[in-house]
Amino acid sequence: MKADKAKGVLIVLSGPSGVGKGTVCKALLARNPQVKLSVSATTRAPRPGEMEGVSYFFKTRDEFERMIAAGDFLEYMDVFGMNYYGTPRAYVEQQLAAGNDILLEIDVKGAMNVKRLCPDAVLVFVVPPSMDTLKKRLVGRGTETEEAVERRTREAFAEMKLLPEYDYAIVNDVLETAVDEVETIIKAERLRICRRPDLTNFCKEAGTEL
């Protein structure tokens, strides 16, 4: 009898602004075709070249708020009262059931909500080599005012307080090393007994259950 297909791993990647989590995600996806970036829903208008169901699931504000009321999001946020962004629960569950690993790049508040709703999610926090390095990266963007840099630095210290709620932490100093470490985490998580339906027969012979 063919073994059931292993369920995918839900990976949540968070970290303070400027830590480079987006760059880590992009490199991880490029190297691992079995890892899929979750498609978010949003109420903002599509931009040129964006495709429904690929770039985003585009919703009206009423549609989005009905989904909120129905509990259809793993997490969501209202950005400055202008547009909603959220992670549709159904899409993530479908991809995981198909055996795809799903990557969420979200803030710490969203990550805590996903952890509550999906206890088997794997939470990874991207840490800067030092807070001074993080501040230099923010300044180096050339897009932040001095006040904005100071605000984001304060926010980073506040976010770091939630580090113990995560399963893993990686330091994004050398990008390739950081991506290697996330790949190692995913490989290890895929080998957890609870994610191994192929071991069902062994367990039956031993008189136990997964």
> How much β-strand is present in the residues?
15-25%
Label the CATH architecture of the domain at 10-38 and 99-206. 3-Layer(aba) Sandwich
Proportion of residues in helical segments: 40-55%
Strand order of the largest sheet: 2-7-1-8-9
Helix run count: 8
How many strands?
A: 9
Rg is: 19 Å
Strand and helix order = EHEEEHEEHEHEHHEHH
Instruction: Give the end-to-end Cα distance, rounded to a whole number of Å.
Output: 17 Å
Mean pLDDT across the residues is 91
- What's the shape? globular
CATH fold title of the domain at 10-38 and 99-206: Rossmann fold
CATH class value of the domain at 10-38 and 99-206: Alpha Beta
Structural class category = alpha/beta
Oligomer: single chain
Outline the low-pLDDT stretches.
none
Q: Give the biggest beta sheet.
A: 5 strands, parallel
**CATH superfamily membership of the domain at 10-38 and 99-206:** P-loop containing nucleotide triphosphate hydrolases
Summarize the structure.
This protein is of the alpha/beta class and 210 residues long. Helices cover 42% and strands 19% of the residues.
Architecture blueprint of SSEs:
Layout: E1 10-14, H1 21-31, E2 35-37, E3 41-42, E4 57-58, H2 61-69, E5 73-79, E6 83-88, H3 89-97, E7 101-105, H4 108-117, E8 122-127, H5 131-141, H6 146-160, E9 168-171, H7 175-190, H8 200-206
Helix pairs in contact: 1-7, 5-6
